[in-house]
């Protein structure tokens, strides 16, 4: 059994929200991060992704599944449930996401300054 996901995993003050690059949709990289340690149930994903609606999480998971990054498994038993996990292709995204996160941390102050000043691209 995996430990529960940290509810503060994607704290609004964390650089994850400042990443200017998106993989798939706004939530894809964050979902991949949540699945990094192993398969999770839908309700587990909602804990750190507290800003996402059930409808949008469902759509994002379906898109990631369609793209071959996430697998959906129905787990039989007395309390049948569904788990989402990374495929080998999905796992291959962890290293690029790590690099993007490191870049965002390195440029945290610059990103904040640009957003606060309302800078517009030229």
TrEMBL record:
This one is known as: Transcriptional regulator
Q: Which Pfam families match?
A: HxlR (PF01638)
- Which Gene3D superfamilies does the UniProt entry name for this protein? Winged helix-like DNA-binding domain superfamily/Winged helix DNA-binding domain
- Which keywords fit this entry according to its UniProt record? DNA-binding, Transcription, Transcription regulation
Q: Where is the HTH hxlR-type domain?
A: 14-112
């Amino acid at each position: 059994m995996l430990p529960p996901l940290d509810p503060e995993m994607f704290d609004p003050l964390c650089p994850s929200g400042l990443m200017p690059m998106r993989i798939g949709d706004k939530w894809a990289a964050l979902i991949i991060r949540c699945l990094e340690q192993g398969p999770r149930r839908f309700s587990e994903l909602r804990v750190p992704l507290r800003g996402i609606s059930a409808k949008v999480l469902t759509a994002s998971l379906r898109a990631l599944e369609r793209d071959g990054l996430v697998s959906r498994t129905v787990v039989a038993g007395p309390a049948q449930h569904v788990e989402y996990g990374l495929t080998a292709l999905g796992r291959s995204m962890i290293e690029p996401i790590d690099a993007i996160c490191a870049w965002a941390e390195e440029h945290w102050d610059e990103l904040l300054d640009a957003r606060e000043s309302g800078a517009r691209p030229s």
